[in-house]
């Protein structure tokens, strides 16, 4: 398959790169057994793709999934009880995201600057193959795509192929006839029947293209609607927080819109990697239904009580006064209630469990800065998966450079959290001296609506910046 891709690229004079997964070489685990092969191979594949994009300085990856793959994804998710956004399948365009919470999967800030596109999602596989045949283009069929014991997706593929009454490519090379007898098949069959219930004369994939397109269109409209609501409703507040009046939420009555909006807010503010399910309450619909019920109920029982429903996002009922001040108290006549969302305070290791890993809130970035200081590079540090701290080393004060060069001194630059919103603060630690704050967040509580917020730098020449990097857009 790799050789075929290389030959085709050469034929069209397209640069080609072949890479492989180095199983057993850190951070890759040993080559997985048959049972875990699909998941681990996918993780390894995406690690190699992202690394190659970094090497080539590419910002976009085009993937070859087609309409049949999209149908399978929808059936797979519907069989697991997903909502509208999940059932709409794979997006045509998506941000790569920060990845997972370990070295193999974590992409950091670079993942926020890279995208995936899927240009063939509306094109059926048969049409793609027919185009290849008509233009004498060679192609390769992966036989493992039709082995139901390898992946759940293959079970769905076999069911739909049998319904279409078309032979399975590569099936003649296998002894058994694929039949829907494996665990989990029943719910997939029910999902297929539900999705294609309006099709009278067609079965299999062909019966599902149109309803699949409807789901995609509805999901796209929902995403646009949620983005518009957030743009109109969110009030000014410090970075990594959100202030939204309860009256704006009460105007939303559609359950799917409520779920999509709360999911977007949580992903926007969570300290988990952007794009990871941990930053979206693991995507569980029943959890979102419970969260929506709690949010839309307001703060009737205890207006002073803050709570978290997961993903390390804290919901606090507050009052917006007539002059625009935010107060943690019951509203007086003429004042508005609102939800103030922020990062939840970190829990102890015992509370969050030994397996859960969070980015530390105290980072010693001295080794990173020292390694890049002589080249006068720009050093970028992702803090708590929320902020990008940028050090312009060519602007570092001369006295501080001399401190770093002096072997008898051991200055350290630390990023730690400050304020109840866990905003980053950069400090300089030196033996015999008090900590020097190099960058910190400031605002005047005497002014309404956090309008005076700014990043204050200790030096006249600004050489450190902080930027909140999590977007609330759907891409």
TrEMBL record:
<keyword id="KW-0436">Ligase</keyword>
<dbReference type="GO" id="GO:0032267">
    <property type="term" value="F:tRNA(Ile)-lysidine synthase activity"/>
</dbReference>
<keyword id="KW-0067">ATP-binding</keyword>
<feature type="domain" description="tRNA(Ile)-lysidine/2-thiocytidine synthase N-terminal">
    <location>
        <begin position="5"/>
        <end position="158"/>
    </location>
</feature>
<protein>
    <recommendedName>
        <fullName>tRNA(Ile)-lysidine synthetase</fullName>
        <ecNumber>6.3.4.19</ecNumber>
    </recommendedName>
</protein>
<dbReference type="Pfam" id="PF01171">
    <property type="entry name" value="ATP_bind_3"/>
</dbReference>
<dbReference type="GO" id="GO:0008033">
    <property type="term" value="P:tRNA processing"/>
</dbReference>
<dbReference type="InterPro" id="IPR014729">
    <property type="entry name" value="Rossmann-like_a/b/a_fold"/>
</dbReference>
<dbReference type="GO" id="GO:0005524">
    <property type="term" value="F:ATP binding"/>
</dbReference>
<dbReference type="InterPro" id="IPR011063">
    <property type="entry name" value="TilS/TtcA_N"/>
</dbReference>
<keyword id="KW-0547">Nucleotide-binding</keyword>
<keyword id="KW-0819">tRNA processing</keyword>
<dbReference type="InterPro" id="IPR012795">
    <property type="entry name" value="tRNA_Ile_lys_synt_N"/>
</dbReference>
<dbReference type="InterPro" id="IPR012094">
    <property type="entry name" value="tRNA_Ile_lys_synt"/>
</dbReference>
């Amino acid at each position: 398959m790799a050789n075929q891709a290389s030959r085709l690229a050469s034929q069209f004079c397209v640069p080609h790169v072949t890479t492989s997964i180095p199983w057993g070489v850190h951070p890759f685990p040993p080559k997985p057994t048959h049972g875990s092969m699909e998941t681990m191979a996918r993780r390894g594949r995406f690690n190699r793709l992202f690394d190659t994009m970094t090497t080539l300085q590419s910002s976009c990856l085009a993937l070859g999934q087609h309409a049949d793959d999209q149908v399978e994804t929808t059936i797979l998710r519907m069989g697991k009880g997903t909502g509208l956004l999940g059932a709409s399948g794979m997006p045509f365009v998506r941000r790569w995201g920060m990845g997972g919470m370990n070295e193999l999967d974590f992409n950091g800030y670079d993942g926020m600057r890279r995208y995936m596109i899927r240009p063939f999602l509306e094109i059926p596989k048969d049409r793609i193959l027919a185009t290849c045949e008509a233009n004498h283009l060679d192609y390769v069929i992966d036989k493992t795509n039709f082995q139901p014991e390898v992946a759940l997706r293959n079970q769905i593929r076999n069911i739909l192929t049998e319904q279409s009454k078309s032979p399975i490519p590569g099936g003649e090379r296998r002894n058994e006839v694929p039949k829907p007898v494996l665990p989990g098949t029943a719910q997939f069959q029910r999902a297929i029947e539900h999705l294609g219930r309006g099709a009278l004369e067609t079965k299999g994939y062909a019966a599902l293209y149109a309803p699949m397109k409807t789901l995609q269109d509805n999901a796209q409209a929902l995403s646009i609607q949620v983005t518009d609501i957030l743009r109109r409703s969110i009030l000014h507040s410090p970075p990594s927080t959100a202030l939204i009046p309860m009256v704006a939420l009460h105007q939303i009555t559609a359950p799917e819109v409520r779920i999509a909006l709360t999911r977007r807010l949580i992903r926007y503010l969570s300290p988990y990697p952007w794009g990871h399910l941990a930053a979206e309450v693991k995507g569980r619909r029943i959890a979102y239904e419970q969260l929506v019920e709690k949010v839309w109920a307001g703060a009737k029982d205890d207006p002073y009580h803050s709570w978290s429903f997961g993903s390390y996002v804290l919901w606090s009922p507050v009052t917006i006064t007539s002059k625009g001040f935010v107060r943690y108290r019951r509203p007086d006549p003429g004042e508005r209630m609102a939800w103030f969302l922020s990062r939840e305070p970190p829990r102890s290791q015992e509370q969050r469990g030994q397996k859960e890993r969070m980015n530390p809130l105290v980072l010693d970035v001295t080794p990173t800065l020292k390694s890049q200081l002589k080249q006068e590079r720009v050093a970028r540090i992702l803090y708590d998966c929320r902020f990008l701290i940028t050090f312009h080393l060519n602007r570092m004060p001369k006295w501080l450079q001399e401190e770093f060069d002096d072997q008898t001194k051991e200055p350290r630059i630390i990023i730690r959290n400050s304020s109840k919103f866990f905003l980053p603060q950069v400090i300089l630690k030196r033996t015999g001296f008090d900590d020097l704050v190099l960058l910190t967040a400031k605002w005047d509580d005497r002014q309404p609506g956090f309008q005076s917020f700014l990043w204050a730098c200790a030096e006249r020449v600004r050489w450190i910046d902080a930027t909140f990097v999590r977007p609330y857009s759907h891409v």
